Amino acid sequence: MLYLKLFQTEQEKQACEDTQEYVSYTEDTDKVSIHYEPFFCKLTLNNGEIIEIEGSGELTSAMTKAYSATTVSAKIGDLCTSIGYNAFYNYSGLTSVTIGSSVTSIGDSAFGKCSGLTSITIPDSVNSIGISAFTNCGGLTRVTIGNGVTSIGIGAFNTCSGLTSVTIGSSVTSIDNNVFVRCSSLTSITIPNSVTSIGNYVFSGCTSLSSITSLATTAPTITSYTFQNVKSNGTLYVPSGSSGYDVWMGTGNYYLGKYNWTKVEQ
User: Fold this and answer.
1) 4, CA 20 to 30 Å: which among 95, 171, 179, 186?
2) Pairing of strands 128-129, 80-83
3) CA diameter of the chain
4) What is the arithmetic mean of pLDDT over 2-19?
5) What DSSP assignment string belongs to 210-223?
6) Quick check: 162 and 185 in contact, CB under 8 A?
7) Residues contacting residue 45 through CB under 8 Å, at least 6 positions apart
8) Which segments of the chain does DSSP mark as H helices, in order?
9) 65 phi and psi angles, rounded to 5 deg
10) HSE, side-chain direction, 13 A CA sphere, residue 12
11) Range in 24-33, 35-44, 96-105, 248-257 the model is least confident about
12) What are the backbone dihedrals phi and psi of residue 165, each rounded to the nearest 5 degrees, phi first?
């Protein structure tokens, strides 16, 4: 265990024991190991040091914030059930994250402004992605969303300007407002047939987006701002005999027809 703390006074020790942390002492030193209740996470720092935090349950920002400036990779183990609010917010040096198979939720802003993060795979165990979970991750190029996710929160990938590849799992039913807003490098996306609604500004500012494949035979509901400022002359691919996509192809406001898109049934 490399996460050690030296208590200077008995009062400091007592204060620690009175919190959600518990303390284990080593016999050959006056240092102590701090074990957080509850989760497991291993952080690798930019000097090669490895920090291990043990337990089970939710990983919170209070448990990781001491290493925000130096963490380069994080491995979140199988005892962790959720990644909490702001857990890795603004860890600009973080380049790699492995999420364990027991994590069921990724909290609001959990990885916001992690500008060094290049790819993320969200396992099938996760069922929800919080508001702005990966907002402003400018270096993020590839996202794979597992088949357990049912909802993608508002602005989850807002301003991920380097994002070129997104795989959306087959259980997602709703894509909330602003999810991919200003993802200016995104050129194509496939929307699974589980999706029934797509919110405001989801693809607003996706100025390279020229191909959308929707697998639903009944078009998901959209708003007049869903496709604001997408690339002109793109192609919408839909199932043969599908219905409702004429709304998407409208020429008013910011529908795809306004940008001279073509609908192709296949």
Assistant:
1) 95
2) unpaired
3) 75
4) 40
5) -EEEE--SBPPB--
6) yes
7) 51, 67, 70, 71, 72
8) 10-17, 61-64, 245-248
9) -60, -25
10) 8
11) 24-33
12) -135, 125
Q: Decide if 204 contacts 178 (C-beta within 8 A).
A: yes
| Residues 193-236 pLDDT 10s | 999 999 999 999 999 999 999 999 999 999 999 999 999 999 99
- The fourth-level CATH superfamily of domain 58-265 is Ribonuclease Inhibitor (3.80.10.10)
What span, in angstroms and rounded, lies between the C-alpha atoms of 110 and 120? 13
Name the strands in the sheet holding 142-145, side by side, starting at the edge strand that comes first in the sequence.
119-122, 142-145, 165-167
Q: Nearest to residue 180, comparing CAs of 136, 139, 216, 223? A: 136
CA nearest to 62, candidates 80, 36, 42:
36
Locus of tokens 């602003």: 178
Cβ atoms of 172 and 199 within 8 Å: the answer is: no
Structure tokens belonging to residue 144: 């794979």
Global confidence as pTM? 0.82
Name which residue leads in pLDDT, 139 or 23.
139
Q: What was the pLDDT predicted at 4?
A: 31
